[in-house]
Amino acid sequence: MPENPPVPLTLDGASMLHQMYRMNWKAWRGRSEAERARICAAAERDLKRLMEAQQKGDGTALYSQLGHKGDLMLVHMRHSVEELNRVELALAQMELHDYLELTHSYLSIVELGLYESSAKTYGALAARDVAPHSPEWNASIAETLERQAQAMAARLYPAIPETKYICFYPMDRKRGEEVNWYTEPMADRQRMMHEHGMIGRRYADEVRQIISGSIGLDDWEWGVDLFAQEPGVFKKLIYEMRYDEVSAKYALFGAFYVGVHLPVEKLSAWLAGTL
Q1: Phi-psi region of 53 (alpha: psi -120 to 50; beta: other; left: phi over 0)
Q2: What does the DSSP 8-state code read for residue 49?
Q3: Over the stretch 182-218, which tens digit does the pLDDT of each residue have?
Q4: Is the pLDDT of residue 1 over 90?
C-alpha cells in the first residue's frame, strides 16, 4: 500500500493584509483647524470607498489600536494579493497618510486545514493502491478540494466581523531539535488539532476566529484574528489553549495587537481626541 503524504490538504480563500500605523500627532497638531478638517473629510471619503465591498469576501475595517505598537490598525480582505496591493497604493495617496508611519504589516491568506478529509481521502486512495501524486491521485485530490471549497465558501471568504474588539497575532509551530511539529505522524497532528479546535468551539458564541496561512508570504506561518464584543474573552480563550497539547508543546507566538473598532464616521473625533 502506498505511503500517504504527511502534508494535510488545505483550502485557500481571501487574501488578508494587516497594517499597523503610528500617528505623528505633533505634525498633525501643527496644521490649522481648517486644514485638519479638510484632510479628515477626504480621508473619511477615501476609506469609505475602500470599505465598500466589490464582491463577497471583500472588506476593510479600521481600529483604534491600544499600546505602544501603534495608533491605528487597518484589516483588509480581498480576492487576490494584487487587489491588496492596489489598496496599499490607494491609501498612500491620501493626504492623511503623510501623518502615519507604518509600524508593522502582515500578509496572509485565509486557510482552512482539512486534517479529517485528508485522512479519509488519502486512506481511500491508498486502499485502491493509487500512488501519491499520480494523475489519478491528483484528480481525486482536486475533486475533494473543489467539493470542500464549495461547501465552505462562506468561511473562505468571510465578512470582517462587526465586533467592538479585535486581537491579531502571528504564530509558528515548533520545528526544533527536540520538538518538531512537522515530523509528527499526521494521525497524531490530526488528533491534537481536533482537541485544540474543541476548545475554540466552546467560545464560538463569544469569539469569531479567522485563521490565515502565511508560510512563504510573511515572517510567521499563520496569522490569527479574534473578534469579540468584550476583550477579556481573548485572555480566557488563549490562556485555556495554552494548556492544550498543540499549544503547550508545539506553539510559538509573535506580538499581539489589540484594537477597538473605529467607525470611519468617527475618524474626525478620533483625530481630535474626543471619542
Answers
A1: beta
A2: H
A3: 999 989 999 999 999 999 899 999 999 999 999 999 9
A4: no
CATH number of the domain residue 72 falls in: 3.30.70.1030
Note down the domain range covering 26.
14-110+261-272
Residue 99 lies in a domain: yes
Residue 24 is assigned to a structural domain of this protein:
yes
SS3 230: coil
Q: Are 11 and 111 in contact (CB under 8 A)?
A: yes
Residues in the chain: 275
The helix (H) or strand (E) run that includes residue 105 is strand 100-114
The DSSP symbol for 181 reads G
Name residue, grid cell 479546535.
Answer: 197
Distance from the Cα of residue 122 to its chain's centroid: 28
Backbone phi, psi, residue 4, to 5°: -70, 145
Q: What residue type is 117 in one-letter code?
A: S
Number of folded domains that form the chain: 1
Report if residue 197 sits inside a domain: no
Angle at 162 between CA 98 and CA 233, to 5 degrees: 105
Q: 264 pLDDT band (50/70/90 cuts)?
A: very high
Query: Residue 85 domain-assigned?
Result: yes
Q: Map residue 81 onto helix, strand or coil.
A: helix
Tell me the whole-structure pTM to 2 decimals: 0.94
Q: Are the C-beta atoms of residues 125 and 138 closer than 8 Å to each other? A: no
Give catalytic residue positions.
Answer: 169
Q: Summarize pLDDT for 9-31 with one digit per residue, the tens.
A: 999 999 999 999 999 999 999 99
Q: How far apart are CA 207 and CA 222, in angstroms?
A: 18
Are 166 and 73 in contact by the 8 Å Cβ rule? The answer is yes
One-letter amino acid at 155 equals R
pLDDT tens for each residue of 109-148: 999 999 989 989 999 999 999 999 999 999 999 999 999 9
Indicate if the pLDDT at residue 52 is higher than 90: no
